[in-house]
Amino acid sequence: MPAELSPIDKAKFVAAKRAVAYVESGMKLGLGTGSTAAWMVRCLAERVQNEGLKVVGVPTSTRTAELARSLGIQVVSLDEAKWLDLTIDGADEIDPQLNLIKGGGAALLQEKIVATASDRMIVIADAAKEVAQLGAFPLPVEVIPFGWQTTKALIEETLVSLDVLNREATLRMNGDKPLVTDEANYIIDLHLKRIGNPRQLALVLNQIPGVVENGLFIDICDVVVIGHGDGRVQLRDINDGSAREDRVEFAPTDNIFADPDA
Ligand code: 5RP
């Protein structure tokens, strides 16, 4: 492995590489978004090139679509694919039940639609993403731009009766303008610090007019692959309760190390 990779990139890489070993020829795949998912797209492209693996990918963002196409992965829309065998994606937080916070990269809407339309979801991450309880990472909520300040006020009002530690809500910015998602919506980040009942919060948030979707992924993830900088990977399957540890070997000649910033 090239010396210039940071321990965190090594951890993301080994998690991605191990997860891609689950892919079989003929599969329809959901391709996640973010820096860890970008490693997964590179590892997948390597298998497509080296082994002639035949897969189609449904990307969860325009940037993942661009990366996948540029590396020779066949990209189709979800409507073309209809149902997927497997989605592999990153996460911002993972709790012991494999419930997640996602949306740090503002792609939560497509990510949730794609993961839900898959037989299985594998989440890949470095160990820092594992938490005892969700909520330290700000929870993203995608809202339509029309009346967003009213929607934000309604969200804050709703949070008063819910089991959270803090209730600050902020509009995510891109420079001096609101960040605009792939679906032309805004993101409101909820700085809750601790989420006592993620399932209830996910349901309640989606009832508020103007809210399109929230970044809580409840009962969607099947397997988590946690990577470490020394090549170890820990795998947990929530369905059969299994947990095991593996090791991913690095091939210094791998051309996927060329440009890790996707
Ligand atoms: C994008 C996401 C990402 O999967 C999440 O933010 C993790 O990103 P990274 O792998 O870069 O830490 O949900 O919307």
Overview of this protein structure:
This protein is of the alpha/beta class and 262 residues long. The chain folds into two domains: 2-131 and 219-252, 3-Layer(aba) Sandwich (Rossmann fold), CATH 3.40.50.1360; 139-214, ACT domain (Alpha-Beta Plaits, 2-Layer Sandwich). It is 28% helix and 27% strand. The protein contains seven helices and 17 strands. The chain has helices at 7-20, 35-51, 62-70, 78-81, 108-116, 148-159, 198-205, and strands at residues 28-31, 56-59, 74-75, 84-89, 93-94, 100-101, 118-126, 139-143, 168-171, 173-174, 177-178, 186-191, 211-214, 216-217, 223-227, 232-237, 243-247. The strands form four sheets. The chain has an eight-stranded mixed beta sheet with strand order 3-2-1-4-7-15-16-17. Strands 9-12-8-13 form a four-stranded antiparallel beta sheet, covered by helices on one side. Strands 5-6-14 form a three-stranded antiparallel beta sheet, covered by helices on one side. A hairpin with a 5-residue loop joins β16 (232-237) and β17 (243-247). α1 packs across α2. It is globular. It starts with 6 loop residues before the first helix and ends in a 15-residue tail after the last strand. The mean pLDDT is 95. It binds ribulose-5-phosphate.
